[in-house]
Amino acid sequence: MQRVTAFSQNKPHYKIINHFRSLGAGAARNTGAKISSGDILFFPDGDDLIYKEHIYLCFRMLDHQPSTATDSSFALKTERGPCTVELPKSPIGAVRTGVYMQDQLHPYWKAAIENSVPLNLCVRRECHEFVEGFPEAPVYKKTVCEDIAYGLAVEQFFKVCRVGLETVEYIRYPGNHFDRQLKKFQTPPDQYQDDMPQEQRELHTIRLKLEQEKLAYLQDKFRRIEKTPDLVAILNWQKLAIEALSQNRFQDAIVLFEQGISLEPNLQETVKDPLAVAYNNLGSALRKQGNHDQAIGFFDKALQLNPSLPRADLARIYLNAATVLKEQGAFERALPYLQKTLELEPASSEAIAEFNHVQYQAQIYTKGYQFSSNQFNGQVGIWKQCLDKVANMPALNALNINSGDGQLACWLIDNILTHDSSTVTCVDVFKNQVENSSGDPNETFEELNYQFESNIVKTGHSERITKRKGTPQHVLRSLPLNSFHLVTMGGPKPASDVLEAALLAWDYSK
Predict the structure, then answer these.
(1) What is the pLDDT of residues 158-196, one digit of tens each?
(2) pTM of structure
(3) Do residues 331 and 358 make contact, with C-beta atoms less than 8 angstroms apart?
(4) Among the residues of 104-157, which ranges form H helices?
(5) Burial class (CB in 10 A: 0-12, 13-18, 19+), 500
(6) Which of 46, 58, 64, 368 is the most buried (most CB within 10 A)?
(7) Is it the case that residue 437 has pLDDT exceeding 70?
(8) CA separation (Å) from 20 to 17, 27, 28, 175?
């Protein structure tokens, strides 16, 4: 202490601060940071060595502004000779350099030391203040791990640029922390036998719990602070956004991704897949809340990124978008999304069912049909699957029993009886004295008859549709046997009625 005091005399820019008692290295560093006024902070230990180029190198790295700079590297003279240092491609929050050690260490432990000691770390003041400095709990004085906790907190939230050049020296003295662990540092990690006492293990368990609590506190703090462009520029925004995504904080993830891309557009390709997932997941959440307009906007954003997701995941986004549009009644807009879904996942039963339903609804909207019920909508896929093999077959004559408002007849004309030589004969009582086949007691057959006539005209093929009034039992007896290739019956009917219709329509004597 006397040597330090003597050295600082007549040096007004030096300050010596004494704690009233030993509070540990973390508290000492925090005090030093508080009473200093610079924007860049270093934390050298008294028993280590900083080379002349260290401060200059760190300053150049942190002061570099890639958006306005013309240089991408700079020359640096060192005692070991000149070298060229690459400047960071984006603003950064901290720098870590290489650490020289006279002893030969295993590469694994050398890297671990370089990632944990504060000697080679230089940080912006705003980063230090955000993480609220080094931990000062008494357990850290016993475990000597405050440096690790601090480094992890800084790297969790901010970009740290690593420079391989060794600009500091970690010196081993007899009995110091480095010296006590030398054997460990020279042993391959898979061969090292940890002989830590149980009491020390318990202390490490305590400090690990404290670090988890500190990170959770900082995460909450981070969510509440304003994300200014200057802050986002030095944030480890990719890691933070992906972490938010994994925690289902989709809005937070999207904000970070979008702000980060606006500052570093060259990284859009790198993050487009997780950003697409965030858009899709937020869209799904909004859909559940009934906010369909915003939901479709986020699904479209996800697809516009052209993400390289697995086919099943990409198909799910298209299907999600189609489902929202279907729920909005925008059936024609939904169809292209469903077609793309089926291109990606041809065997998806859910997509096939949705496609058949939406295609039919779009058809109804386009033609202007007015049907009295939606019961047929859920059966479209089954009908299509059964009848696709005869679709567009020439001279196919169909019989539609219990035609009602013409819903099934119209669907047959539009989807199965598409050849100009195909016909359909519709059989129903078409009277207003009895309840109609839709089961609605407030709708008369007179109204139903009008709907049937109106819908048939809208097919554009009314000349191929014949209406026969009367009950099926009477009408079918007046028609020649075997004059129909296909017989359909509308509405739920007893098996006896279906069997009778089949017997009356086809000749089973041959």
Answers:
(1) 999 999 999 999 999 998 888 989 999 999 999 888 888
(2) 0.81
(3) yes
(4) 107-114, 125-130, 138-143, 146-157
(5) middle
(6) 58
(7) no
(8) 10, 12, 11, 26
